[in-house]
Write a structure and sequence with these properties.
The chain has seven helices and five strands; from the N terminus they run βαβαβαβαβααα. By secondary structure, the protein is α/β, with parallel strands linked by helices. It starts with 9 loop residues before the first strand and ends with a helix. The site of 4'-phosphopantetheine has 9 residues, from β1 and α4.
Length: about 170
């Protein structure tokens, strides 16, 4: 009797990535050693256009640069339900990072909802390294908006984009 193998499992790492942080990158790098194929799936939410700091195009560009050293990672955008996107692409794993117990409560609900809608969808959590446990995209945006140094919290492509976005605030600090 042959056992079914799952060599071609395709994982999606969905998110807003506004912008990607070193916590996201840590989870992604470690997952890239487990899954043969990972798609960074950036949510294009038409209701949130103008509410994100970075446009979809900017986020895609930052993500592509930040993940270019990982050969099995690609970057795409999606809109609508994540599970519909997974059905279309054949992805079966949802990758998410956890920083603290507070993340878990929210993630647990979403994981159950997604699997209810699409039973093939299995959510896999990777605990972000403790050194990134305090880093979030929203905090990074807030700090950068005051011209604070965020270089150690985000990949260089994201830092460069933040410096450009808040050029006036950074000029004032230097
Ligand atoms: O980085 P975020 O903002 O925490 O990511 C949230 C995301 C994009 C993974 C989640 O909002 C999502 O999957 N949105 C797509 C719509 C959807 O499928 N919703 C059902 C689960 S809440």
């Amino acid at each position: 009797m042959s056992k079914e193998t799952n060599k071609e499992v395709h994982a999606v790492f969905p998110g807003s990535f506004d912008p990607i942080t070193n916590g996201h990158l840590d989870v992604l790098s470690r997952a890239s050693k487990i899954f043969p194929q990972i798609t960074l799936a950036v949510l294009h939410n038409s209701k949130k256009v103008g509410k994100n700091l970075f446009t979809l195009e900017e986020r895609l560009e930052i993500l592509s640069k930040a993940s270019e050293h990982l050969p099995n990672v690609t970057v795409q955008s999606f809109s609508g339900l994540l599970v519909d996107y997974m059905r279309l692409t054949g992805a079966t794993v949802i990758l998410r990072g956890l920083r603290a117990v507070s993340d878990y409560e929210y993630e647990l609900q979403i994981a159950h909802l997604n699997r209810q809608m699409y039973p093939k969808a299995e959510t896999v959590f990777i605990m972000a390294a403790t050194r990134w446990s305090y880093v979030s995209s929203s905090m990074v945006r807030e700090l950068a908006s005051y011209g604070a140094d965020i270089a150690k919290m985000v990949p260089p492509a994201a830092a460069a984009a933040l410096y450009l976005k808040f050029a006036a605030e950074y000029a004032e600090k230097n």
